[in-house]
Specification:
The chain is an alpha/beta fold. Helix content is about 45%, strand content about 10%. The chain has nine helices and five strands. Helix 4 packs parallel to helix 8. The longest helix is centred in the first third of the chain and has 19 residues.
Length: about 230
Amino acid sequence: MNAGPGRPSGGGGKHRRRRGRRSSRRGGSGSGPAMGRDRQNHGGIYTAPMDHSYRANMQGGENGSRAGRSRPGFGGAYKPADPDPVPGARAEDSASRIFAFVDDLFFLAKIQETARKMNVRVEFVKTDKDLTDKLKQNGEEKPSLIIFDLNNANAKPLILIPKLKSKLKKGTSIIGFLSHVQGDLKQKAHEVGCDMVLPRSAFSQNLPNLLRRHGAPEEEVSEAGL
């Protein structure tokens, strides 16, 4: 049908006006300042890029520490207080009451450092013969605590622990530590006579208490009822 006078061909003005309105709506929500406002306030969440001062605060924390030295929003790393020395204990005493079958360098250093701060002497041994020689030097005094790294293959803990339990009886506590996922090894250690088996993290946390209890002189232990 031919278009009438004043009416352009190709669909009519009404359709063009509709298209114009749709395009104007898209322009209002998809570009320009209106789009920026919608993004910033969408869902009540501010999404504009953070400025440099905010980044600095997040990196440095409230205490103003330098960026990269701590986790965002946190101050310096927490450092636990040093354990108090054991009353009456002297690390230079000839007789040691604690022995350790530990060759892991991390735990060896940790035990040494904690014992030094607490004035407790800990002897590190590698084999059954080493322990026997040390015990001969102590005379009749039996050790109060023997620590085993249950993953120390050179010490053969599952073979040595029952021998020590039969020889030292109840006067000596035997404690082992291992990875928290080694459930089978934990069960076997209990079966052969290990008095307590701890995950490595729990052993580290309780180390000062263990050294305090077993490293104190016998008279201090008797008075405390330990």
